[in-house]
Amino acid sequence: MVQPESEIKLEYDSKGMPFRRLGPSGLRVPLFSYGGWLTLGQSVVGDPCKEIIKTAFENGINMFDTAEAYNKGECEKELGRVFKELGLRRTDLVITTKLFWGVRAGPNAGGLSRKHIIEGTQESLARLQVEYVDVIFAHRCDVNVPMEEIVRAFNYVIDKGWAFYWGTSEWTAQQLEEAYHVANKLGLVGPVSEQCQHHMFHRDRAEKEYAPIYKKYHLGNTVFSPLASGLLTGKYNDGIPKGSRFDVEKDFFSSTIKALQSPEGQEKIRKVKELTKLAKEELDTTPGNLALAWVAKNPNTSTVILGATKPEQLLENLKALKVIPKLTPEIIKKIEKILDNKPESHPTYGRPALDEFGKHLY
Ligand SMILES: NC(=O)c1ccc[n+]([C@@H]2O[C@H](COP(=O)([O-])OP(=O)(O)OC[C@H]3O[C@@H](n4cnc5c(N)ncnc54)[C@H](OP(=O)(O)O)[C@@H]3O)[C@@H](O)[C@H]2O)c1
């Protein structure tokens, strides 16, 4: 159903936001998007949700990520309510949601069976108060469902017009290969995007494991947790501030908090402090914006999903757009020296490495 013009109260203005294609698809996604994990419908409810989304939209962010599992559907409900109240044009928005964990217990209330993919999609659409989402993600792979059933079910959802594309989240490269193989064999569409954790302290899957997948299928990453839940802003350098994520969600993050006290954790804090110095002295920016710009610069990143509990955090994080052009090869070299965690290339066993052009012939 075409949305009546009388419902539109806020027109979209990209405000200079760069756009990239979502992997091999024709869909244009903003380089920075916003997601509501642990925030919308959970630590942030009611009008403050509207303030965050309005701030995002008015500053060029028109893509919003959620999941059925985010506080058992409450995040989707808040987003749906706010889109309506703000009077946003559906065609201006890119809405993504994810299925896997469900919103209630039950043998078929989650996972990636055809039953849950179809029923879960319908329930998400109802909570979001929309007729379709732009991309529907498999929030994790379900190893107990045949891949053919998963691929067929997501294609059914697309054919019904309930989603335009499908994607995966935290699948292994092997699981993705199987999905593409099945889709190609059956003449169906494969995933266009992975929603994968990628930040300065979490690199292997996004930078090494998926390398052949990017080359063969042009998969685009919708990066999650780009600030390592806030660690890369430096806010945890001297303990856990009251009201921060690690304070509010201390049970969920108990192992992360414990790991921060270990020698490895303390080493991360030391690196954040060094990155802070580099950011300030050479780029006139913050460590958080350096971290966001760094992951946005990666050519396999389609969008970086920002998290924020307040509009001010979003405005601060969007300043990272101005840092991206400052990341020269010399600065990247300095960052790599501090991080000292660049994933190693696959071994050549003594044979000479391929040159730049040879590498692209995979
Ligand atoms: N597919 C998946 O499995 C998966 C998993 C996780 C996330 N995601 C998606 O990715 C989105 C982003 O992930 P994330 O929220 O973990 O991202 P993140 O950027 O790593 O962390 C965001 C949190 O850091 C803090 N923060 C952000 N900007 C700040 C600033 N300028 N100064 C100080 N603190 C700041 C805020 O928490 P406090 O203010 O509470 O400290 C904010 O909620 C999620 O909302 C979700 O849509 C997907």
UniProtKB/TrEMBL annotation:
Record domain NADP-dependent oxidoreductase: where = 34-339
Q: Which UniProt keywords apply?
A: NADP, Oxidoreductase
- Keyword Transmembrane appears in the UniProt entry: no
Q: Which GO terms describe its molecular function?
A: oxidoreductase activity
Q: Which domain of life is it from?
A: Eukaryota
Record keywords: NADP included? yes
Q: Which family does it belong to?
A: Belongs to the shaker potassium channel beta subunit family.
* Name of the molecule in the record: NADP-dependent oxidoreductase domain-containing protein
Q: What organism does the UniProt record list as the source?
A: Marasmius oreades (fairy-ring Marasmius)
